[in-house]
Amino acid sequence: MLNVPSVLSELAILAVPLLIAVTFHEVAHGYAADRLGDPTPRRAGRLTLNPLKHLDVVGTLVFALTRMIGWAKPVPVNPAYFRRPRQDMLWVGLAGPAANFALAVVFAGAYRLLASVAAGVETVAAARLVVLLALMARAGVIANLGLGLFNLIPIPPLDGSRVLAGLLPGPAAAAVYRLERYGFVLVLVLVFSGALDWTLYPALRGAASALLGG
Predict the structure, then answer these.
(1) Nearest CA to 147 among 138, 158, 137, 136?
(2) Cα–Cα distances in Å, from 109 out to 106, 186, 203?
(3) One of 10, 26, 122, 180 is an active-site residue; which one?
(4) For the segment 117-136, what is each residue's pLDDT rounded down to a tens digit?
């Protein structure tokens, strides 16, 4: 039976780390595109740390259900501005997951620091605050690893498809992009079919264990 209070408590702890993960992921995409010559993200107002500009309703719902994976509203990018469209899109695609992996390391450092000082806290109120912050830092590791790893799956519109298309020769890259019309359905099938149980989740758990110390 679903323990509603427990789920709500877990989601409350995840909320802030998730917003941070989503925001930095999308800003990283936009910043990379902007640096490569595409003004579209800036004109669309997506180079902002306001999380409401980046949230995707379905992606957020999936994260709420799985508490491990999800996605954000894609940053608009126009490859016509790039000197080497496919190769530059590879870097734009990598920027989001790279930002998440960097944040996962930062959150892991915060978690280890909070865990080390928890024993020395003298008051109950302070101890509860430290525990809450430690749980949020731990959730930040999971949220960022989950978002980064999931988006590296090479299915459009996930970032991994941009990376794969940038590595493949022209005709093969075009075939990857043609999958985009079915991409959303493929992503949902991947999420709810259980395929991630033996692919992405083991990698996520292994990375989280390494960062958090077991």
Answers:
(1) 158
(2) 5, 35, 20
(3) 26
(4) 877 777 888 888 898 999 99
